[in-house]
Write a structure and sequence with these properties.
187 residues; alpha+beta; Alpha-Beta Plaits; 4 strands
């Protein structure tokens, strides 16, 4: 009589509820340990902060918007001292068109100006309409138009408006008393 060799074709793992629970608990424990180790390694590693590249300027985004008129000459303000950044120690020039971003308290204006300056914008903080208020003004750099600066600012979510700077009003001189007439000497 010949014996036929029996090859196992079907293979099954029989696990009861306790075995399934034990395997899942073991998998959960291993996952938790790996998460904790990755957290500890991430906290211990030195971090390097890189500046994000500015978003690309898309000319098509301005197709439906009216262009900001560009003045004939745009002259950036001159810095008063070399030690202090130009955005902090400059005065706007009368008759020059700027893009005004906001008019806020001095601390907020300084933070905003510093961030824009670090991003490559020509910016200054100018006196505001009242005491304790400063304006954040931006103007184009070399070879850049006012409209190009506006597009770059709007790409960052800011909404500037055109502001042509005028001389601040000079305070009126207090009235002085007329000098008393002097007697003319007789010759």
């Amino acid at each position: 009589m010949e014996h036929a060799e029996v090859l196992p074709q079907d293979f099954a793992i029989a696990m009861g509820p306790r075995q399934i629970t034990a395997v899942l608990l073991l998998a959960l424990t291993v996952t938790g340990i790996l998460c904790c180790l990755s957290y500890i390694i991430g906290r211990a590693s030195p971090h390097t902060v890189t500046a994000a590249a500015p978003p690309p300027v898309r000319p098509a985004a301005t197709a439906g918007k009216a262009a900001v008129p560009c003045p004939a000459t745009v002259v950036p303000p001159a810095a008063k001292t070399a030690d202090v950044p130009a955005w902090k120690n400059s005065d706007p020039q009368p008759g020059v068109a700027y893009l005004q971003l906001m008019s806020v308290e001095p601390g907020v204006a300084e933070v905003m100006a510093r961030g824009l300056h670090d991003d490559g914008f020509h910016v200054l903080v100018a006196p505001g309409a009242g005491a304790g208020v400063r304006r954040v003004l931006v103007w184009p750099g070399d070879g850049e138009s006012l409209n190009g600066v506006r597009v770059r600012l709007e790409a960052r979510g800011l909404h500037p408006f055109l502001k042509t700077w005028t001389e601040p009003p000079t305070p009126a001189a207090p009235p002085t008393a007329a000098p008393a007439p002097t007697a003319a000497p007789n010759p």
